[in-house]
Design goal:
The complex is a heterodimer. By secondary structure, chain A is an all-alpha fold. Chain A has one domain. The longest helix of chain A is centred in the C-terminal third of the chain and has 29 residues. Chain A is elongated. In chain B, β1 and β2 form a beta hairpin. Classes of the chains: A mainly alpha, B alpha+beta.
Chain lengths: ~100, ~525
């Protein structure tokens, strides 16, 4: 149960962080967000990740919880990335200007 | 200056990553599989079904040893657990005056046994099971263990350097956190490498550093050498309960072990007993040492309690570990993940898969980056060909070998001489064959064919299993034999993943002109 709650919080956290990033907003949110909303999402994202750490440590003990949190972060980030790429793959192919990396 | 530093770090990352990259890939693959070594062993011994009661099985094992090995110097018993259905016992025969005591190193066939819950030897096919994959992770195979561990240690050190230099090189960890673009050639490979590296970065740092710690006394023996005349003296002082006991010569029966295990459990807050040592069984000076199971806490080195073997009185409990010992114990525990329950074990496994992809994509990236700059793409230089062929042989060849290992377990005759050895040989035969194939075929074709072969072999595992043994994924669904269900599903996922990779490689094939295999072979021979 602790695992499930913590993973859910990690997914929510990374989803907020992803939505807070201007370059991903068109794909992930569907439109550009204003700077204030982005900042709010960024703070919310980090807070959710910390909440996941708290849940892990309370539910599993400090040591075990810290290990599990690292694994939950990986899984959460991976799932958000998967979602982001599914969204991009479903979009009709359009010529986008290549962003300089 | 700043650019200079980053460029030098990029150089360091490229070459430390490449030089032993293939070994690192093999270590990641086998190490990841080793998180399920007990489950793989159970799958490879389908005859063993019972999951007996831990305490009763331990007592039954002692009864067995009492009957067959009453004169032994020591008995060692690993009780069955949630993950292992058998009690594994081994013993040291009694020392004979003037004869060197037998080392544990040699073949243990005549000094060990696998017992069921009633203390009866289990009859199962001869196999190393998941244990082989675990040992290959740091002992390799066909070469002396001592040198293998140095080689593995150098590879791990390179890995650590590659991680740190990689962090410096990848300058936009946060800005590019979710960057994974497909169908953009080199950029896609770089994205995949970055994403797999960043997402499980804490795991890689932990696993690489703690991996070095597990063998630290071999890599850095000088601390012990400076303070102890014999390394054994150090280990006896550090690990109580290992010390030798003097034989009295007076016969005395052993007390039942079950109540002692209950005492130990209570002292360890319910954690199970992971191993039992009986010193001088049958002698009035006998002792029984119980050590906590490594599944009971993160620290892998369990506390131990020594009881008198004849009265059952508590003689000595291991003192709390000092800071350094506790740190080492926790680091080894973190690395091996023996404490991890099912949820965390799967997450360990997924992180390991991530690491495998990270190393694999890094190796491929080396060739992708250089392919565009080749003066004559149809005839690349020797170094490029070497790396690209080694990549095929490692990234597609090792999975093919492991699938063959599973298949050989089902297909080799049960009564075969040296059966367990031939299971392992078959892994290396197929792995070696993919190397020859990779050299003989045009590179892109070699990728497609080797990946398809690996995928096909994994897909064959559930089929061959269903045809050769009564337990499989479908009967498992009906009878609740979840191990066989999960194993079949895992094999099919691997098969689909490798098949998908083969298809991707095939689509990229058309653009590249085929290369002449003979010229490559000649140049490999002359170089």
């Amino acid at each position: 149960m602790t695992h499930i709650i913590a993973i859910a919080l990690c997914i929510a956290g990374f989803a907020s962080l992803c939505a807070a990033m201007v370059r991903h907003q068109p794909d992930f949110v569907g439109r550009k967000l204003d700077a204030g909303t982005s900042r709010l999402l960024r703070h919310a994202g980090f807070s959710l990740l910390l909440a996941a750490l708290a849940v892990d440590m309370i539910g599993l003990g400090a040591g075990y919880g810290a290990v599990a949190w690292c694994a939950h972060l990986t899984l959460g980030a991976g799932l958000v990335l998967f979602r982001l790429n599914r969204t991009i793959a479903r979009q009709p192919v359009k010529a986008k200007p290549a962003r300089k990396g | 200056m700043k650019d200079g530093f980053r460029q030098s770090m990029a150089w360091l990352h490229t070459w430390t990553g490449l030089l032993l990259g293939w070994l690192l890939f093999a270590m990641f693959v086998t190490g990841t599989a080793a998180y399920f070594q007990e489950e793989i062993s159970r799958w490879m011994k389908p005859e063993v079904i019972a999951a007996p009661d831990r305490e009763a099985a331990t007592q039954a094992a002692i009864t067995y040893l009492n009957r067959t090995q009453p004169d032994a110097e020591n008995w060692f018993i690993s009780p069955p657990s949630a993950r292992t259905p058998t009690a594994n016992v081994f013993w040291q025969p009694r020392k004979v005056e003037g004869e060197e005591p037998r080392k544990r190193r040699g073949r243990r066939g005549d000094t060990s046994a696998t017992l069921d819950g009633q203390g009866q030897p289990v009859t199962a096919r001869e196999t190393q099971g998941g244990f082989f994959l675990y040992r290959f992770h740091f002992d390799l195979h066909y070469i002396p263990v001592h040198w293998a561990r140095y080689l593995v240690g150098v590879a791990a050190m390179f890995m650590l350097i590659a991680i740190f230099s990689g962090i410096v090189t990848h300058k936009k960890i946060f800005a590019d956190f979710f960057m994974l673009r497909f169908g953009k050639g080199q950029r896609s490979w770089l994205d995949a490498h970055n994403v797999t590296a960043v997402f499980a970065l804490p795991f890689y740092l932990m696993i690489t550093y703690t991996g070095l710690v597990t063998l630290a006394t071999q890599y850095m023996p000088w601390g012990i050498a400076a303070n102890y005349s014999q390394p054994d003296a150090f280990f006896e002082e550090v690990f109580p309960g290992r010390a030798e006991v003097e034989r009295s010569g007076i016969a005395a029966p052993l007390v039942p072990v079950t109540p002692l295990m209950e005492v130990a459990r209570q002292r360890w807050n319910g954690a199970d007993v992971g191993s039992v040592r009986v010193a001088l069984p049958g002698d009035s000076n006998s002792t029984i040492t119980l050590t906590r199971a490594s599944s009971g806490a993160i620290g892998s080195r369990g506390e131990s309690i020594v009881f008198s073997g004849t009265s059952g009185d508590l003689i000595e409990a291991s003192a709390p570990q000092g800071g350094a010992m506790a740190t080492q114990s926790v680091m080894i525990g973190l690395h091996a993940g023996r404490f991890a329950g099912w949820g965390l074990r799967w997450l360990y496994f997924l992180s390991g898969i991530g690491g495998t992809i990270m190393v694999g994509s890094g190796l491929v990236l080396w060739t992708v980056k250089r392919r565009a700059k080749l003066p004559d793409p149809a005839h690349p230089h020797f170094g490029f060909r070497l790396v690209s062929r080694m990549n095929v042989a490692t990234i597609a060849g090792l999975p093919a070998g492991i699938a063959t290992y599973f298949l050989a377990n089902r297909l080799l005759p049960l009564g075969m001489e040296a059966r367990a050895d031939w299971e392992i040989h078959s892994l290396f035969i197929v792995w070696g064959a993919t190397l020859i194939w990779a050299i003989a075929r045009p590179e892109k074709r070699a990728w497609v064919e080797s990946l398809a072969l690996a995928g096909g072999l994994f897909a064959a595992v559930p089929v061959i299993n269903a045809l050769t043994v009564p337990r499989n994924g479908i009967t498992g669904l009906l009878s609740g034999d979840w191990l066989f269900v999960a194993f079949d599903i895992a094999m099919l996922i691997l098969a689909v993943g490798l098949g998908f990779a083969a298809r991707k490689a095939a689509r990229a094939t058309t653009a590249k002109p085929p290369r002449r295999a003979r010229a490559i072979k000649e140049e490999l021979a002359t170089a």
